[in-house]
């Protein structure tokens, strides 16, 4: 039996669609993007001291296109969404077998109010978000913090709660369902196969 853990998300949006001629009215919509391209002079040696790479390359470093928006459902309850994709402006190829021009980034559907925000989709984990602006080489080829810290990930199928900011504190907690079928030994089919949480204190942050 299929037992949805969070049917209220679908219920809210289905109800709105039914009363708005099969679409959800959006009272706030933002298109955004960023192109980040660099010219690299590469000179790498292998473990034996031989030449591994010696060339020039043009690289796209997390160039993105996105759209985000929201709709007020009632007082202190707002529906929000975001769809964001990495684009490869250097050669239009993400390096995968299917040569895709787009790679999904933080994309979600959710609800927010004075109680905080809950979203579901693909998103940075609380651990990744906790570093804030510490990662000065974010989105660069070799200097990104994810190369040094395990768990600095963007997770699929994540349900994430973010508390409102109170007394300069903000809390985040997330879980990731396993989604295996549960018919085989060792299947990861639980509600919270992955979990992540963080507490953030920022002096003067609004």
Q: How would you classify the helix and strand content by structural class?
A: mainly beta
CATH architecture: Beta Barrel
Mean pLDDT figure: 81
Number of helices: 2
The whole-angstrom Rg is: 21 Å
How many domains? Answer: 1
- Poorly predicted runs are 17-22
CATH superfamily membership: Porin
Number of β-strand runs: 11
Spatial separation of the terminal alpha carbons = 44 Å
- Percent strand equals over 45%
What do you see in this structure?
The protein is mainly beta. It has one domain (7-30, 62-201): Porin (Beta Barrel). 8% of the residues lie in helices and 45% in strands. It contains 2 helices and 11 strands. The protein has helices at residues 7-18, 126-130, and strands at residues 28-34, 37-45, 51-60, 63-74, 77-87, 102-104, 107-113, 116-124, 154-162, 169-176, 194-201. Strands 1, 4, 5, 6, 7, 8, 9, 10 and 11 form a 9-stranded antiparallel sheet that branches. A two-stranded antiparallel ribbon has the order 2-3. Strand 9 (154-162) and strand 10 (169-176) form a beta hairpin. The protein starts with 6 loop residues before the first helix and ends in a 5-residue tail after the last strand. The model is unreliable at 17-22 (pLDDT under 50).
How would you concisely characterize the structure shown here?
By secondary structure, the chain is mainly beta. It has helices spanning 7-18, 126-130; strands at 28-34, 37-45, 51-60, 63-74, 77-87, 102-104, 107-113, 116-124, 154-162, 169-176, 194-201.
């Amino acid at each position: 039996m299929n037992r949805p853990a969070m049917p209220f998300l679908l219920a809210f949006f289905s109800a709105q669609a039914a009363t708005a001629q099969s679409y959800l009215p959006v009272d706030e919509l933002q298109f955004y993007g960023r192109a980040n391209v660099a010219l690299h002079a590469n000179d790498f040696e292998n473990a034996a001291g031989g030449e591994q790479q010696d060339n020039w390359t043009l690289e796209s470093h997390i160039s993105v296109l996105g759209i985000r928006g929201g709709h007020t459902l009632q007082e202190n309850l707002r529906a929000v969404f975001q769809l964001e994709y990495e684009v490869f402006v250097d050669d239009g190829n993400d390096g995968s077998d299917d040569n895709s021009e787009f790679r999904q980034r933080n994309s979600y559907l959710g609800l927010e109010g004075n109680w905080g925000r809950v979203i579901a989709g693909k998103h940075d984990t609380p651990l990744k978000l906790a570093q804030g602006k510490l990662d000065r080489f974010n989105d660069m080829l070799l200097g990104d913090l994810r190369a040094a810290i395990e768990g600095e990930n963007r997770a699929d199928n994540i349900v994430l709660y973010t508390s409102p900011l109170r007394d300069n504190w903000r809390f985040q907690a997330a879980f990731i369902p396993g989604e295996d079928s549960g018919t085989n030994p060792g299947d990861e089919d639980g509600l919270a196969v992955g979990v992540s949480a963080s507490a953030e204190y920022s002096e003067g942050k609004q």
